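For concreteness, we quote verbatim a single protein encoded this way:
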Amino acid sequence: MSNDKTVKKSRLKLFLPLAFFLTFCILLYVGLFLEDKKELPSALLNDPVPEFSLPKLKQPNEIVTQETLKGQVYLLNVWGSWCPACKVEHPYLVKLAKRGVRIIGLSYKDEDADALRWLQRLEDPYTFNIVDKDGRLGVDLGVYGAPETFLVDKKGIIRYKHVGIVDQRVWVEVLKPKYGQLQKEVL
């Protein structure tokens, strides 16, 4: 009798790793496919862009601050030449810039030479780029990775955060209506 219990316990122990693995797979599936990762909340939503003082990529002697950016609605696009998804997003940002959308780049944890080569090779959609070599501004913004895009109003308040690639669907369905509405607001 006790031998039967021992055999049953041994068999049960064989299935424990399988049970853990299946539980992990279910949680991974829910995390990857059922939750909308593009809608990650930003702790800074409706707060000002954090204080910073960083150089421009193409004019390293010019310093940009959060105050410099006030007065116009803009997209703050976090990117890096090391980022494969940024390469996918880039042609659409070029189209938006040609339509007059103001896009400020945040060269995130990148080497200046690599970022400059990237922009020369793929075209530069940015009004200008801010160099965030050590990622401090990214951390202050709550950046998870690249690309990420923040919609900022004329007063320098973050109104929306998009995680992932900005493409035609994201622009038309999400960002364009919000951008247009913010453009109409008076300072």
In short: The chain is about 45% helix and 20% strand.
